[in-house]
Amino acid sequence: MSTLPPNQRTPEALERAIYNMSKLDRAAFRGGFILENIMGSISTGHLELTSKNPNVNPFVTFNYFKLP
């Protein structure tokens, strides 16, 4: 979905994305997803790994509305 411009995200495209995600192995969702919420954001954030353990969530700072 993130590759589609917002004006092309039709109900049919959303339905197709949901269907395609339902076909993925459940293991694909154990790590989680970070999705882009704002197209073309000029702010930057960072991701920090807090452990070598793959089951520990990373520390994520998005900074959506912070000026660069």
TrEMBL record:
Q: Which UniProt keywords apply?
A: FAD, Flavoprotein
What InterPro entries does the annotation carry? FAD/NAD-bd_sf, GMC_Oxidoreductase-Related
Which superkingdom does the taxonomy of this entry point to? Answer: Eukaryota
Is the Isomerase keyword given for this protein? no
Protein name (database record): Uncharacterized protein
Keyword 4Fe-4S attached: no
For activity, the cofactor(s) needed are:
FAD
